[in-house]
Amino acid sequence: MKKVFFTILAAMIVMSLAFAGCKGKTGPKPEEEQTQAKPASGTGKASAGEANHIRLEDDYYDFVNGQMLNNTKIPGDASGWSQFYKLDREAYEVLNEVLNEVLRESVNNRKNEKEGSLEQKIADLYLTAMDMEGRRAAGFGGLAVYMDGISRASTIEEYLEQAGKIYNDLGVSSIILPQWSEDMSNSTRYALYFDGADLGPGKETLEDSDQEELMNHYRNYISQIMEDTGMKKEEADRAADGILNLQKDLAGSALPLSKQGDPDVIYNPYTGEELKKLFPDGTMETFLKAADLNEQDQYIVVQVDQMKKIGGYLNQESLPLLKQYTLFCLVNDFAPSLTPEIRDTYLEWNNLRKGIKERKTDEKLASELTQNTLGFEFGKLYVEKCFSKSDKKDIESMIRLILASYKKQIENLTWMSDETKASAIRKLEHMNLKVGYPDKWPNDYKDAKVLSAEEGGNLIDNSLSLLKAVNEVNKKKYKEPVDKGEWGMTPQTVNAYYNPTANEIVFPAAILQPPFYDPKADFASNLGGIGMVMAHEVSHAFDSSGSLYDENGNYHVWWTKEDREKFDELAKQVEDYYSGMDGFQGRKVNGAQTLNENIADLGSMACITAIADEKGSDLNLLFRQYATIWASKYTPEAMLDRLNTDSHSPAKVRVNGVLSATDAFYKAYPEIKEGDAMYVAPDKRVKIW
Ligand SMILES: [Zn+2]
């Protein structure tokens, strides 16, 4: 039910869920844009910090962003504001307008609209999402059959049979979590992984002593959901205690976030016979058979200790608890498509967790649900409206420049042998590049039926129909060789990623716009913006996890033993450097959890400053733009949540921590002296690449 595996394989630049924006968008500008300070002169030295009485020597991030952030309000229905968020919302507005056009056409031409056309699906999905009475009348709709199956199970075998059937029909699961993904050892084919169980807010939050009050709210949320499944209040309270304790117990044997991407830890191939031994006799067979997964020649166990722990629960005594847990996971997963009351319960909990003050409007929720569900369908429309082919060429040549510079960076390393350097450069030279949008658009929902209310349709059944359609497409896909043309992000996503099993860097259309990239801006600013993002993704090929994959995207150690030991030593220095930094209100950054992202930031900064040096570009402009793209503010609740769930350091640390470790920064700002907060002594400046 949690769908995290992609993030295990692909380290992204920033966690972001929604949608992005279009260049040249008209309409009123949000206040934060109007108050954003511009450089006072060509030197790139801003007036912003001076007006705000912040010295760049003390806090470069606040020097650049402080005044603008002071004047920026976090929107009531959001957990924060950032440049990513701003572009997200712009893309949402573009696609919301597309949706409204479809709705207007649909009202006028209802009779002529082709049954099963994309327009019909968009219109009826949105309209059933807006039909609150229809949602109430539908109750659990088609989900009820799966919930009843779980409720009726009187033995562990029957329970696992139902859990397997749910996976087979919908591709979701709770206690045993099968997930298909590229085989790390042979990335041309798919492999079946078994990941950890659904832990709700996650191991780090469940185990955080500062979050005990929040966990009480979580318990109340579970209880409310259980009441919605028909339990009496007292029974629901008891169930909630049991479910929370189960998740906490499983969290004890779960991998921390810092280990979840490490192939040395998570790639554990088992034969069917070996896998069955992790569980009590006969239980794994029952699940695999019902899930139609029993014919595989290998199974990869991601979290071995947790699988053994789960095995300990597969007995008659724990059956009532397991049934309640799976019911909760099912309703929690589908809550956004259920009755308005269940949806609101779900949103209240999620908003509380992130300090969001207002619930989004029904219209916004329905539009987002439609845009997110039909992500690539909307992505195609987004690209037609918002992406220029000439930008694509410009972006590609910039990436080639970065790859060439990175090659020199590797050649000049003093701690690495020529043998390992040759392998690293081979990996760099084989790196695949994707810019803007996919060459081939997925068509996963071709066979899905989305029915209007008049035809008896409702939101939960439409959502299940779409999910079943994509599940059927996926089942066929996983039997075929991996299609390397596929994209893991929609073009309207304001983000970028490196996929280690394809050795590829991917830049969706929506990040290729200001403040990241502006065809009219100077080279130094674009280097500090999109150049930094590009070199960051390239660096993921050489972070602690990414560097264990070869040029073909296979998990294969290409390092000499001595060089790997030196790398590990340097990585430990990076971990310690960040572990000492303030994350939020006295809580320190988790240097292990953020290690790979920090390695990517540091490697990226070394690369882009080397290019600037070679070309004589204005370093002040470069650093200023780098600080600008990370401008953000979050509610205190969201800041704490991110410290537990984000593999990136907080934005201010990404700026100040990286720049303080960069020699070129001191060249650009010679006024920074020992004793200043931004100053780090030359021998303490961490560097790997
Ligand atoms: Zn990253």
From TrEMBL:
<dbReference type="Pfam" id="PF05649">
    <property type="entry name" value="Peptidase_M13_N"/>
</dbReference>
<keyword id="KW-0378">Hydrolase</keyword>
<dbReference type="InterPro" id="IPR024079">
    <property type="entry name" value="MetalloPept_cat_dom_sf"/>
</dbReference>
<keyword id="KW-0479">Metal-binding</keyword>
<dbReference type="InterPro" id="IPR000718">
    <property type="entry name" value="Peptidase_M13"/>
</dbReference>
<keyword id="KW-0482">Metalloprotease</keyword>
<protein>
    <submittedName>
        <fullName>M13 family metallopeptidase</fullName>
    </submittedName>
</protein>
<dbReference type="InterPro" id="IPR042089">
    <property type="entry name" value="Peptidase_M13_dom_2"/>
</dbReference>
<comment type="similarity">
    <text>Belongs to the peptidase M13 family.</text>
</comment>
<dbReference type="Pfam" id="PF01431">
    <property type="entry name" value="Peptidase_M13"/>
</dbReference>
<feature type="signal peptide">
    <location>
        <begin position="1"/>
        <end position="20"/>
    </location>
</feature>
<dbReference type="InterPro" id="IPR008753">
    <property type="entry name" value="Peptidase_M13_N"/>
</dbReference>
<dbReference type="InterPro" id="IPR018497">
    <property type="entry name" value="Peptidase_M13_C"/>
</dbReference>
<feature type="domain" description="Peptidase M13 N-terminal">
    <location>
        <begin position="58"/>
        <end position="438"/>
    </location>
</feature>
<feature type="region of interest" description="Disordered">
    <location>
        <begin position="24"/>
        <end position="49"/>
    </location>
</feature>
<keyword id="KW-0645">Protease</keyword>
<feature type="domain" description="Peptidase M13 C-terminal">
    <location>
        <begin position="495"/>
        <end position="686"/>
    </location>
</feature>
<keyword id="KW-0862">Zinc</keyword>
<keyword id="KW-0732">Signal</keyword>
